[in-house]
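Q: Hi! First time doing this. I have a protein sequence and I read that you can turn it into a structure. Is that right? Here it is:
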Amino acid sequence: MSALLKTTLLFALTALAEIAGCYLPWLWLKRGGSIWLLLPAAASLTLFAWLLTLHPTAAGRTYAAYGGVYIGMALLWLWLVDGIRPTGWDLLGGAVALAGMAIIMFAPRS
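A: Yes, that's right. Below is the predicted 3D structure, encoded as structure tokens:
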């Protein structure tokens, strides 16, 4: 597997774990879901923290770049889970965030 594909998949999995880990408590608090949702939420956030350690670059750079991927995944979640189609402005903002992530992650380094 190429480094680019591995990094992309790792970022996507990391974002999915964080979003799910935050969404489940939201369901409990805002939608009257079961308190038992907190158990998979905690597991998901634990997975998120572990996945962050697998990224090959310095932690600060990883966190900065991860923000762009998180925004893109959150917009996808908005559409697929919440059933709300992102607006053109949402998509433009997501594209800008992903471009920033690509600059941070894939810039040549010495």
